[in-house]
Write a structure and sequence with these properties.
326 residues, mainly alpha, 14 helices, globular
Length: 326
């Protein structure tokens, strides 16, 4: 029983990183923008939150956990949103190719994170020596009382606040896209920007805002990984392929954030499954790591065959739109 509980906890911990990234990318793709820079924006968010918390804790006379959380949270969101802004300027205003720009953003973000993360680690005394006791304690604090309710407490209430925020954000984005006027306008932009433009919807504004806000949400995934999952430490290239798994989860969830909640836990479990199967060789472990992608491909094939419109990507996804070209 203990092994099962630990596996579920680890699957959830892995999945939260992916959930943040998928939620942000769904919001972006609903505008018609295909931003493959999710891994880069995760790195930008993670390093932004880490550096700000490090500077605060090492320069404040009496560092406060709440202030450390607020500062690192805002910095992580803004740094990753800046990545979304860079992508938007290049693809919307300067007409750069979306796929190339997204991949370049990933390279830029990973390099930026590794440079500052490595420098910060050396400044603090070496890899893994970054000391953020106040910030780490605030991010990893469990829910009082409820976390002590036996098995129920261990499975559902033994995580930091970012875990619950990721679920709340996914549910909010679901409501926003389906029930709010702005969400309906955003979906219209993603389906047919020319038609939305003719109806008086500010296409460019919606694309910019969705991409920047989506990037910021992706950055919170990086913040979660650094602060809660890794306990306030930095390892170069430590995020692995979680950013790409977030993009795969968008497809698996059929562009619906509420589906991404349980899908992220499934992906998290599949991602670490090889660790719980004894006797696997290295080559076999790599095959198990492919499972989330294989499941995504299967879902993509099935949804393509069924051709239900509500399960398809936005019609203009990845296609540039310039008003003067109408």
């Amino acid at each position: 029983m203990n092994a099962i509980i630990i596996f579920i906890q680890k699957a959830i911990a892995q999945g939260i990183v992916i959930l943040f990234g998928a939620t942000g990318e769904i919001l972006t793709e609903k505008s018609g923008n295909l931003n493959l820079g999710v891994p880069g924006m995760m790195y930008m968010g993670g390093i932004g939150g880490l550096v700000s918390a490090f500077l605060y804790e090492n320069h404040a006379a009496n560092p406060n956990g709440l202030i450390a959380v607020l500062l690192s949270f805002v910095c992580a969101f803004l740094c990753a949103a800046l990545g979304g802004l860079i992508y938007s300027v290049l693809t919307i205003s300067l007409r750069a190719n979306q796929n190339v720009t997204g991949l370049a953003l990933t390279t830029f973000g990973v390099g930026l994170g590794n440079f500052f993360g490595g420098s910060l680690s050396q400044l603090a005394g070496g890899v893994g020596q970054i000391a953020l006791p106040v910030t780490s304690a605030a991010y990893t604090a469990k829910i009082p009382v409820l976390s002590n309710l036996g098995v129920v407490g261990e499975i559902f209430f033994s995580y930091g606040f970012l875990t619950y925020l990721s679920i709340a954000l996914a549910l909010f984005v679901t409501w926003f896209l389906q029930k709010s006027r702005s969400g309906l306008n955003l979906r219209a932009v993603g389906e047919s920007p020319a038609t939305a433009d003719a109806a008086g919807i500010a296409v460019t504004k919606y694309k910019y805002l969705a991409t920047c806000l989506g990037g910021g949400i992706c950055g919170l995934g990086g913040l979660y990984f650094v602060m809660e999952y890794a306990g306030g430490t930095w390892t170069n290239n430590g995020f692995g392929d979680r950013g790409w798994l977030a993009i795969a989860l968008v497809i698996f969830a059929l562009w619906k954030p509420k589906n991404a909640i349980w899908g992220s836990i499934l992906f998290g479990g599949l991602y670490i499954l090889y660790l719980y199967i004894p006797g696997l060789q290295r080559s076999t472990q790599e095959i198990f790591k492919m499972l989330p992608y294989l499941v995504t491909i299967l879902v993509l094939i099935l949804t393509s065959l069924r051709k239900k419109k509500e399960n398809q990507p936005p019609a203009s996804l990845g296609l540039p739109y310039f008003r003067e070209d109408r």
